[in-house]
Amino acid sequence: MNTFLTSSANVKYDIRRIPIIWLGSDSWLTVSNANTTGLKKADDLAKASIQLRVGGSGVSSLRSLRPKLALELFGVDHTWVTGYKGSSDLLLAFEKGEIHMFEDPQDGYQSNIQPREKRGIAVVLWQTGIIGTDESFRRSQLLPHVPTLDEVLPKDKKHGARWQAWKAAVIPQAFQYSVGLHPATPQDRITILSQAFAKMTQDPEFRADFEKALGEAPDAVIGKQADRIVKDGVKKLFEDYKAGVDYLRDMALSK
Predict the structure, then answer these.
(1) Model confidence, pTM
(2) Range in 9-18, 30-39, 99-108, 245-254 with the lowest mean pLDDT
(3) Which domain holds residue 240?
(4) Which long-range contacts link 228-234 to residues 24+ away (Cβ below 8 Å)?
(5) Each residue's pLDDT tens digit, 49-76
(6) How many structural domains are present in the chain?
């Protein structure tokens, strides 16, 4: 999905033709270094006394684009530092003060962020949440205490291409993990496999292993509902949020 948003010419398939039988959502967290920035919550951004350095990986990665885009929406002075290989490098740069903010997946909260919260270093300012077909943002069940950006961003900032870009950048989180089939798969096979995935997610041993690895229950969306969520989301990207997708592409190219 990153590839589609920033360089659709490289995409060699049409996800709208792929039957989706299983999907799981994910929310990402924007984390600030409380020691180096003095930020305790999103409202503090308006009085930041330093130019914030936002860390990221590749310039076309949504984990790089989203926190930068959020600061643009808030109208906060910042600089963008990309090229980090992943969470380990970003965390090291975060603790050394090379960067002040970065985005991390909710699955890494317990191991990466929570220990640093307890040490007074890290503060989670917001999460992406999961955007529904009605364009409302839902907090992750794993982190119900963390507000979404939609909740902390002033209402007068929610307009134009930038806000469309934020919605476009969050849509893929509704189907962060998905299983699809070949477009020519017969319907009866799709039904059988959907039922098999549904049984798998209710298996006690599978659920225990899943929760141990990711810290949340494997309550994914199965079958026709999963397929509908993906198709609706892609439709919004192609049609409703075109200006937002163009904005994200321009951000990636301007680095």
Answers:
(1) 0.87
(2) 9-18
(3) 2-7+17-128+137-177+218-249
(4) 229/20, 229/23, 229/133, 229/174, 229/175, 230/15, 230/20, 230/23, 230/175, 230/178, 231/16, 231/20, 232/133, 233/171, 233/172, 233/174, 233/175, 234/15, 234/16
(5) 899 999 999 999 999 999 999 999 999 9
(6) 1
